[in-house]
Design brief:
7 helices, single chain, alpha/beta
Length: 153
């Protein structure tokens, strides 16, 4: 089934996502790693950092919840994901406003509390993901378990 055939403009977003989930998720070229979608405002800084730092462990993508995002969140991206990580509540609310809350019923969804004040791959941004979502192995090795600088004395 082609992408355009999966989407019916007369169906709700939830119905569209449920209809296309089978074709998107069972793509053999995606591998078997857990698929994690990171969502920030524009899909450039925070979500791109999340996708990058966890890409060695998961199949990751990033997008934005604002309409003018570089890669906006779409029903197909939602259908693709096993887990969606919103970097803050405002990004989650934007997506709920666009698609409805029921769209996220079938996918594990996490909402973090990371402000939009970091450049891409900023060490404090990595620390925020490390402490709020899931440990980052190389960050632990360089900065200790709690994400604080380790003593060299």
């Amino acid at each position: 089934m082609k992408h355009k055939e999966m989407i019916d403009e007369n169906q709700s977003y939830s119905a569209q996502i449920r209809k296309c989930r089978e074709g998107v998720v069972s793509n053999p070229y995606q591998g078997t790693d857990k698929k994690v979608l990171f969502v920030c405002s524009m899909g450039i800084l925070r979500s791109a950092t999340g996708a990058r730092i966890y890409s060695d462990k998961y199949n990751t993508r990033c997008c934005g919840s604002w309409g003018d995002a570089l890669i906006p969140i779409t029903p197909l991206l939602i259908a693709w994901a096993n887990e969606i990580v919103f970097v803050n509540h405002a990004n989650y609310e934007n997506a709920v406003s666009e698609f409805g809350a029921d769209v996220f019923d079938d996918v594990y969804t996490v909402v973090l509390d990371i402000p939009d004040s970091y450049p891409h791959m900023d060490i404090e941004l990595v620390k925020a993901f490390h402490t709020q979502w899931e440990p980052v192995t190389w960050f632990e090795e360089e900065h200790g378990q709690a994400g604080t600088a380790t003593s060299t004395a």
